[in-house]
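Q: For a teaching session next week I want to show students how multiple molecules come together into a single three-dimensional assembly. I've collected the sequence lines for a complex. Could you give me the predicted structure tokens for the whole thing so I can convert them for display?
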Amino acid sequence: VKGVEQVAESTAAPGSAGLQACQRPRGSPKRLRHVQSCIALAALALSTPLAQIPPGPDWAAIEDEIMRHFQTVLRLDTSNPPGNEHLAVEYLKQVLDQEGIPAQIFALDPKRPNIVARLKGSGTKRPVLIMAHTDVVTVDAAKWKYPPFSATREGGYVYARGTVDDKDNLTGGLMTMLLLKRQRVPLDRDVIFLAESGEEGNSNFGIQYMVGEHFAQIDAKYCLAEGGGVTRIGGEPRFATVQATEKIPRGIELVATGISGHGSVPLKSNAIVHLAAAVAKVGAWRPDVRFNETSGTYFRRLAAISPPEVATHYRDVLSADPKVRAAADDWLFENEPQHSSMLRTSVSPNIFTGGYRSNVIPSEAKATLDVRMLPDEDPAAFLAQVKQIVNDPAVEVRFGAQNTRPAGVAARVESEPFKAIEAANTRIYNVATLPAMSTFATDMAQLRAKGVQCFGIGPATDLEDGPRGFGMHSDQERLLESELYRFVRFNYDVVVDLARAK
Amino acid sequence: MTFARPAILLISLTSITAFAQAPTQPDWAKLQDETMQHYQAVLRIDTRNPPGNETVLAEYLKRVLDKEGIPAQIVGSDPKRSNVVARLKGNGKKRPLLIMGHSDVVTVDEAKWKFPPFSATRDGGYIYGRGTVDDKDNLTASLMTMLLLKRQNVALDRDVIFLSEAGEEGSSGIGIGYMVKDQFPLIDAEYCLAEGGGVVRIGGEVKYATVQTLEKIPRGIELVARGISGHGSVPLKSNAIVHLAGAVAKVGDWRPEVRFNETTGTYFRKLAAISPPDVARYYRDVLSTDPNVRKAADDWLFENEPRHSSMLRTSVSPNIFTGGYRSNVIPSEAKATLDVRALPDEDPAKFLEQVRRVVNDPAVEVRFTGQNERPAGRDARLDNEVYKALEAAGTRVYNATTLPTMSTGATDMAQLRAKGVQCFGIGSATDFEDPPKGFGAHSDQERILENELHRFVRYNWDIITNIVGAK
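A: Of course. Below is the structure for the complete assembly, covering every listed component.
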């Protein structure tokens, strides 16, 4: 596709390759954007002198080792609930010990421990924390083509629950630790590895416990975790995102109550029917579009690097004209749902339960809405809006008891980690980096609330995979093998850039 | 509300059945404790189906019958789900009468019950429990009638067969299905009496009795929505829950066309004749050929008398909706079950097509559940001795006129009617206002008035002695 070439041109690697790119003859139709990116690249090249990068490992030689660790952790069933993250922690401890990296286990519940390992630096700078969670969401095993904990390799992909959430980051973090030690990279700052439990809904066992009870073990200036990634379109990397802020999850429950009775006599008060109407209305509703600094920057930058037919939607959705904005919004919802969720507090009805026997009208039915609030959303005002949409006195609308996350400060674009990530993205993926607000919650929320600057990264995945049912939490969660290897390299590069002695 | 007409009807009814033929009445006041003791005992046996466990109840009934000197037999295809049959021999002049009550009850959502569902708690003149009006009232009355026929030495022109069958609530294969297929000689009869009718009280006053002569055919329909699964933080247009909710909301809002048959036409005409004018007008209007007049009456009935609304049409009630297993995962599938009660002449394939048109969403599959179906049988006649005995007992015991009805619920009579047995559904008196207030059959507060239980036993006795007593 034309657009792909344009992106590739405008985001050439820094250093000599980047400078060559800047010397392309004028007259290119993309000259303006080209010039802009050259300025940016020159700045990057200055901030990261190539001479100081220590020799990297032999990447081809360690692919087997990467795949072995990845498949092993995928095959440990840590679906949460119940979690059983001790399975993963025992394995990680054994691997780290074998490499001579001391690792320590901290647990609120012995079956749900966390593991911390540290590579000491000179202490010139404050530590960097690299983390990943060990648990995964549950599975509906019958729906899986390949068993969800088989880590089956097929057609260049690895299929399993956790392949992109979050055993990719777990493997990336683990490999980085092993390689830093093996390559004897001198460090200006400690590198702390944390594999935490309970990220998928029980962070009280994981990050909350670590921050609350053992913060000294993980206290750092910066942290790297899940939440970003490289987006491929049509099989080509197009841009990278770094998660700088995140939406706040708030579950909302709808409870319809009616009169119970025999199913042979339909009743107007049927709780299932009332709830279905409420869910249909809420499901058809898309709350107002609202931008913040991160998401505004994201869509502007995305428009700048995208082919014109797509860029127009990213620009239009920023428009002040409500009609223009609505058309772009509709297009995004249909074609790029992840972007649609970045525009607003999103609502997804994910559970509906009512009735227990086909000939009995139940007296109650309940639905759970997965609500992801913009960081500045007013929860009470939003709940009132949902009530207005539902508009049925037979349906109660209330917040669920599900745990939420604290609001924290967005990570800065003008920072060492962002620049290191930008440089690595350019070198390894040859793409530009966009700051992003993730639509889902991560364990970074608790660290940001403690003042740690956190950046979310991740491997390259296909933009088309999400809507086609191959995304995280889906029944066919998968990762390209080649992208797993590339991500490990990226991970290592970023950490070396941030932590090595300069 | 005032009822002017029943008095006129009363006179004509009493002339049909001479009082002189009735056998000696038992001492009803004295029998109340015994009735209550059996009723509470059977209510306290947990026969919720599934799993049923009706054998526990069958053994209780056998003990009681045996003790009275009535030989009872336990039969069944599943040892945990037995049926009980007992027979009082007559002189054989006429073919037998079968009286039946099913021993299983529907399941319960225990948390919703004020009184535990198998406690048979007596409170404020009521007994609360699963099965109080479906069907342990009929079971107790039939049992009491057997005991009393024996105790009073009533001379019989025909055998009286008592059957308490398992599995009526959704697994009739082990109950009436088994009895009809494998043990039919044990229950073969000219007539049968079972659940399905009743006496209607409005404002605490008995207004009329109904006898079920026809029933709707249950036909479950499933709606299955399929979409793309994914993380709940990214709403998807294909969300299976949202599509299914849209479909269920549409189906729930839809009321199929009104259509009458002979039974329902007679029912509404008779009902209009005995009802106060402010209500009668709806019963008449719903029979109107003017669509606007009919529609207004139909709306009023749906809101105020849902049972009558269901008698007008093939009814649809979405009763189960299941989808999703975790709040942050969009499931790839969601399923709803519609309880459909078809008019006896409904064409199933065409009806399914209609539901598809109402749903109108390619993401939602619409199909029959394949859940057990009842055979279609002939309606019982209104001009024979049983119907006349029912009319006479309605007048004597309740001072009420009797209306033939098509029941909206399925009963085990379907299988017997398919074998040529003339079946009539009867039942105890309940308040018309109870079901919409949540006190009906299958509800979370199922109940019966104590005095209506006792009256129903008398009514039963009256009908049966009239049909079987030697003349």
